[in-house]
Design goal:
There is one protein chain. The chain is mostly helical and about 375 residues long. It has a single domain, classed as MFS general substrate transporter like domains (Growth Hormone, Chain: A, Up-down Bundle), CATH 1.20.1250.20. It has 17 helices and no strands. The longest helix is centred in the last third of the chain and has 30 residues. It is found in: Cell inner membrane. It is a multi-pass membrane protein.
């Protein structure tokens, strides 16, 4: 199987499961397991803290000892097993424990996927945007699938679709893997320094990582409370799936054409536009608490998420040596996609109890400083 096709299929299958877990699992915990919003926020937020620990420490260690192929296979198998345990959870404590265990394993697949793409970009001229668009397609199909199944079978279907998605992804890991992913990428012996030290002594990398932390963390309320927010607006399950899909459809178009459209765009300009678009997105939801305004805000997802993500991937692919990529992806997954999101999930749950709109407006505490950081530092590292 050609690398481009292999990467596209794996992106599709992984983000199908991500599209079930990220926007719907908080709703599953409240409706099927009977947790309160506060309890569900603790369960999901604690899982994100575990995810941050795992992707920050365990993923770089794993990829220094084993190939990406092995890491992905083992992570996929155990993710499927642990996800199945959720069906037996019957208390807050048990669900919390299962969530933490799942979040130690499953999220490592995200930096593994992105590291695979970066290596294939360097070695085989993979078109990242083209393959990543299949990930967005998987995400959007997951949203439509869940919307349909919830209408037919109730919220119980959320767990079973997640398990089915993980089963397909696990099967795909047994298919022939590109040769470069079977290698273990370690720093040259002559360097004598750790990947962490190399990365954190780079001012430009630290700046880019900080921007990613702020901009990706700002999606915490959208990921965890968007589904519940639309229910509060009395939107039906199938329509919720369609509304959430709007963001991903525009994300797909963005990734399809990003390589071509942004070829001459500086990385700092990408981050600046992402920060401005994200700020506007959360302000719109706060000031206009209507279905129409939420739908309009979905159009900005390709900027608030897609552009920020693309900018980070372009930076590490073009500026970092091969042996640093897995560690950089682990840091991105741990700090930008997990820790910041976890902290803001706790804060968002508190704000949502006061007023749903506050949970979204509160995210500008990250996006507005990001604008300032880009403007202040762009000449130093662009």
């Amino acid at each position: 199987m050609k690398s481009q096709k292999w990467m596209s299929i794996n992106f599709f299958l992984f983000f199908f499961t991500w599209g079930v877990f990220l926007p719907y699992f908080t709703g599953w915990l409240t409706s099927v397991k009977g947790l309160t919003i506060a309890e569900a926020s603790i369960v999901m937020g604690s899982g994100m803290l575990a995810r941050a620990f795992s992707t920050f420490l365990l993923f770089p260690i794993a990829t220094s000892k084993a190939s990406l192929q092995i890491v992905m296979r083992i992570s996929a198998i155990f993710s499927l097993i642990v996800m199945s345990l959720f069906s037996f959870g019957d208390s807050f404590t048990m669900l919390l424990a299962i969530s933490v265990l799942f979040s130690i394993i499953y999220p490592n697949l995200l930096p593994a996927m992105e590291s695979s793409a970066s290596l294939l970009m360097q070695h085989e001229k993979l078109h990242y945007g083209k393959s990543r668009s299949f990930g967005s397609l998987g995400y959007t199909i997951a949203l439509l699938t869940i919307g349909l199944f919830v209408n037919l079978f109730g919220d119980e279907a959320i767990l079973w679709v997640m398990i089915a998605g993980l089963a397909f992804f696990t099967f795909m890991q047994l298919v022939q893997t590109p040769a470069v992913l079977k290698e273990i990428h370690r720093p040259d012996d002559a360097k004598g320094t750790s990947s962490f030290k190399e990365l954190f002594t780079s001012t430009s990398f630290v700046t880019v990582l900080l921007l990613a932390i702020l901009l990706q963390g700002a999606h915490a309320s959208y990921y965890n409370f968007g589904y519940i927010y639309l229910i509060d607006l009395q939107v039906s399950g199938i329509v919720i799936g369609i509304i959430l899909n709007i963001a991903v459809v525009f994300e797909i178009f963005f990734f399809m054409f990003a390589d071509r459209l942004l070829r001459k765009t500086s990385i700092s300009s990408m981050f600046l536009l992402a920060a401005i678009g994200s700020t506007l997105r959360w302000i719109v939801i706060f000031f206009f608490p209507t279905i129409f305004a939420f739908v309009l805000s979905q159009l900005l997802h390709m900027v608030s998420f897609g552009l920020a993500h693309y900018a980070f991937i372009q930076f590490i692919t073009k500026r970092l040596d091969r042996h640093l990529i897995a560690t950089a992806q682990g840091l991105y997954a741990a700090l930008a996609m997990s820790l910041s999101t976890a902290i803001l999930t706790f804060a968002g749950g508190y704000l949502y109890d006061i007023s749903p709109g506050y949970a979204f407006l509160g995210m500008t505490i990250c996006t507005i400083p990001a604008i300032g950081i880009v403007l202040f530092t762009k000449k130093k590292w662009d």
